[in-house]
Amino acid sequence: MHAPSRWQKLFAALLLAFLSAQVNAQEPTLNRLISAAKQEGKLVLSGPADPLLRKGLPEKFKDRFGIVVEYIGASSNDAIGRLRQERQAGLYTIDMMLVGPTALVGVYSEKMLDPLRPLLLDEVLDGRHWKGGKPRFSDPEAKYSLRLAERVTALFMINKSVVKREEFRSIHDLTNPRWKGKIVAEDPTRGSAGTGLPMVLYASLGEEFLKKLYIDNEVILSSDRRQMADWLARGTYPISMGVREEDLQRLQAEGFSLEIINSLADFPGYLAVGAGHLVVVNRAPHPNAARLFANWLASKEGLQLYSRLMGEPSMRADVDESHIPQYMIPKPGVNYIDSASWEYALKRQAVSQRLRELLKRK
Predict the structure, then answer these.
(1) What is the pLDDT at residue 6?
(2) What is the rounded distance in angstroms from the CA atom of residue 186 to the CA atom of residue 154?
(3) Using one digit for the tens of pLDDT, what is the confidence trace for 130-163?
(4) What is the pairing mode between strands 220-222 and 258-261?
(5) What domains, with CATH codes, occur in the chain?
(6) In 3D, which of 193, 203, 198, 166 has the Cα closest to residue 183?
C-alpha cells in the first residue's frame, strides 16, 4: 500500500477543515445569539406605561436569559419626542420600542428604524405558528414592524336595565333622537385618546354620520374612563363609547347588567392593536440583546406572556387564549375594519384634526 501523496494529504487537510467549519456553523444560532447578548448585558425597551407590562416583560426576560431590561414607560408621543431630542444631540440610548399605528408612521417615516425581519430566526417566522399562515408586519415594506396582538374592539356598551339590546340592530340606530343626551363617549378632542372609534366611523360612514351622532344627539364627551364606567352602571348615560373592558368586567362581576356590542349587521366591527407593534431602533446600543429579545417576544413563550399581561389575543396560533374574552378574539372569515393598518394610520392624523374641529365644544 502506497503512502499518501503530498496532494492527498493537502486535500484531506482541506476536507477536514471544511467539515469542521460546517459543524461549527451548525451550532445552534440561538445559543450564539444568547452568548453575544449576555456580553452586552442590557436592553433598553420603550413601551406603554402599563404597570403589568413594564414589570412582567423585564422580569421574565431577565429570568430567562440573565439580561437586564431597562423599561421606559411613556406615551408614544413622548417616546418619539425623546428619540428626536437624543438624535439631535447625537445620542442613541434606546434599542427597541412597542408602538401604536400613529407612532409607527412617525418612526418609520423619519427613518429611525432598522429592519426587524432579517433579525428573526426561521423557527420564529415559520408560518405554521401564526394566524393567517404568516407573521404580520404593518409597515409598507413588511419588514420593520411586527404585529404582536390584535383585538376586536367594542363599538359601544349598554346598560340593559335601561335600554334593550334589540334596539341596536344597525350602527345607524345610535343616531336615533331617542338617545339624545344619553350617550357618553371618550373625548377625541384631547390628543389621540378616544380617536379610534370616531375615526373608524368617520372613515367608514362619513362626516354626516358623525355630525348626527355626536352633535345632533348631543353626545357627552369625557376624558375620565372610570367615571364613564360608573355612569354606565348607574344608567346616568346608559350607552357608552370608550369604557375599558376591564372596568366593564369589574362592574359585571358586581352584578350590573351591562353588555358589549362589538358588531352589528351592517358594521362588522374593527380591530385595534394598541401599542402592539415591535420595532428595532437603528444604531441600537445593544444590537444582540435587541435581536434576542425580538426572537423571544415573538416566540410562543414570549407572546403567551404578552397576551396574559395585556389581556389581548396573540397573533400566534399556538398561544393559549382561554383567558381572553371571546368577544375580543377575531373570528375567521369576518371582514373587520383594521384600524391599525398602514392606510388607516396615515389617515389618522388628518381625521383626528377634523374630529377636533367638528366636536370641539364652544
Answers:
(1) 64
(2) 13
(3) 999 999 999 999 999 999 999 999 899 999 999 9
(4) unpaired
(5) 29-150+273-330 (3.40.190.10), 155-261+348-359 (3.40.190.10)
(6) 198
Q: Which residues, other chains included, contact 108 with Cβ-Cβ below 8 Å and sequence gap of 6+? A: 139, 144, 145, 279
What's the pLDDT at 76?
80
Q: Please give the model's pTM, rounded to 2 decimal places.
A: 0.85
What pLDDT shows up at residue 347?
81
Alpha-carbon separation of residue 331 from 269, 273, 304, 335 (angstroms)? 11, 16, 19, 9
Q: What is the pLDDT of residue 338?
A: 92
pLDDT digits (tens, 9 = 90+) for 309-360: 999 999 999 999 999 988 899 998 889 999 989 988 888 777 777 877 887 7
What pLDDT score was predicted for residue 141?
96
pLDDT along the chain (362 residues), means of 10: 58 51 52 93 95 95 96 89 93 95 92 95 93 95 96 93 95 96 88 74 91 94 91 96 85 92 91 94 96 96 96 96 92 90 84 78 48
